[in-house]
Amino acid sequence: MVDMADTAERTGLDVALEVTSWLEENWDPDLTVGQWWERLGLSGWAAPAWPAEAYGKGLSRGDGIVVQRAIADFGALSAPGGLGLLLAGPTIFTHGTDEQKDRYLRDIVTGRKAWCQLFSEPAAGSDLAGLQTRAVKDGDEWIVNGQKVWTSGGQVADLGMLIARTNQDVPKHQGITYFALDMRQDGIEVRPLREMTGRALFNEVFLSDARVSDDAVIGGVNGGWAVANTTLAFERAGLGAGGGNAGASAATPGSIAGDLERRAGDFVQAKTAGRGGNAGGMFVSAERLLVDLARANGTIGDGAVRQDLARLHSYNEIGRYSGLRQKAMRASGSDLPGAGNLSKLSMSHIVRLVRDLGPRILGPLGTLHGYTPDQRRALAAATGSTGSAGAAMVTEMVLFAPAPSIYGGTDEVQKNIIGERVLGLPKEPGNERTLPFRDLAKNG
User: Fold this and answer.
1) Which residues span the domain enclosing 194?
2) Helices (H), 217-338
């Protein structure tokens, strides 16, 4: 096996060769998903961009994407996706105690526990710091009451990244605490939210006297706003153009979904066969998909279609180059301010282009969509060869397109952050930084 752990300079090819060599020795499709993820996670290849002391390899974000692609190209089951690897793990490593890192990180990289994000509320979306979910201290525990919304994966999550108000007598950003909440307890109700696509990727969560241990506070009592911003920074970087596909995986991590005891090789086959519905990976291969569809039905000869396909390719390449630029700057000890926010805005722009271009390539077929599994099968049977899986993916992307410009912080929020924190423009006037939260006017 190639071992380059002590090599100072690694190229993407070096990294791909190293992980491929490891896979040749270790991939076994007859392992259960849990057994495979245990092997992958403890090797460092599940989260290669994490530090070595946190079950990673200390690679750059760009090289982490190289690893993801190498695993997929090899035909092995990818690392456990979802918000554990994308958000919870990096946040806990940044702000958690040593005991919390020991408690949570291993179960994340091995897929034993799945996470969801309990941030947004019906009256606290763009103004996240205006949240009103309360956590009140009760001995060695906190009692939590409130409502969260747009919670991805809440129905299969073992744990939740919860931010709640723990002090109303200080300005709103100063009275928030970040918790690792056990989702499988009395007092937590998860209700699915059906989308235009027909799927239910998001949920609303009701917390009624839910309990969380005091040792599950991440970053200190009333220090949650800084921790939440770390989570949001990882979210924007992961979701943005060039951010890879950290949110997607064929099998679902955690103890609730039931995938851990199933055969790992079956999920590789299922993924190849188009086992869909994962928003995180929906737009990853849109460019290649649209090019293939345009070639198949002849619209590749339309000058306007060709121009927009070239524009889509250019946007994707700019996102990739921006990631490489940020990597080079970090290697030299500097950084690119607002890179994550710019990347998220770029992704929204790409999504809108895919939304507009896809139906033009499909023509009348772009007006048809199956909202349930039965409808999708019936549509495929009725349209024959023209009703390809690719066409169904395009219509789903079109219907899902409004979401990426909203989740992870709206485009407007990203622009405000860039204006205020990067360009130094004045903040909007207000007294929210000085007035106690209980005295502020509330939304909703």
Assistant:
1) 115-237
2) 224-239, 264-272, 286-297, 303-331
The 10s digit of each residue's pLDDT in 37-81 is 999 999 999 999 999 999 999 988 778 888 998 999 999 999 998
CA distances from 234 to 124, 158, 183, 230, 231 (A): 20, 21, 22, 6, 5
Helix (H) or strand (E) holding 210: strand 202-213
| Residue 162, in any domain of the structure | yes
Three-state DSSP at 212 gives strand
CB 205 within 8 A of CB 161: no
Q: Percent helix, strand and coil across the chain, each rounded to 5?
A: 50, 15, 35
- For residue 192, the model assigns a pLDDT of 94
Q: How many domains does the chain have?
A: 3
Alpha carbons within 13 angstroms on the beta-carbon side of residue 348 total 21
Q: Say which amino acid occupies 131.
A: L
DSSP string, 122-183: TTBSSSGGG---EEEEETTEEEEEEEEES-TTGGG-SEEEEEEE--SSS-GGGSEEEEEEES
Rounded Cα–Cα distance for residues 330 and 408 (Å): 24
Residue partners of 179: CB distance under 8 A and separation at least 6? 135, 142, 144, 161, 162, 163, 164, 212, 216, 217, 218, 224
| Sign of the C-alpha dihedral computed for residues 53, 56, 57 and 61 taken in this order | negative
SS3 262: coil
Tens digit of each residue's pLDDT (9 = 90 or more) over 337-362:
888 888 889 989 999 999 999 999 99
Can you give the pTM of this predicted structure?
Answer: 0.81
Residues known to be catalytic: 235
Phi, psi (5° rounding) for residue 117?
A: -115, 115
Structural Rg of the chain based on CA atoms: 22
Among 81, 105, 135, where does a domain finish? 81
Return the amino acid letter for 59: L
Residue 426 lies in a domain: no
Residue 226 lies in a domain: yes
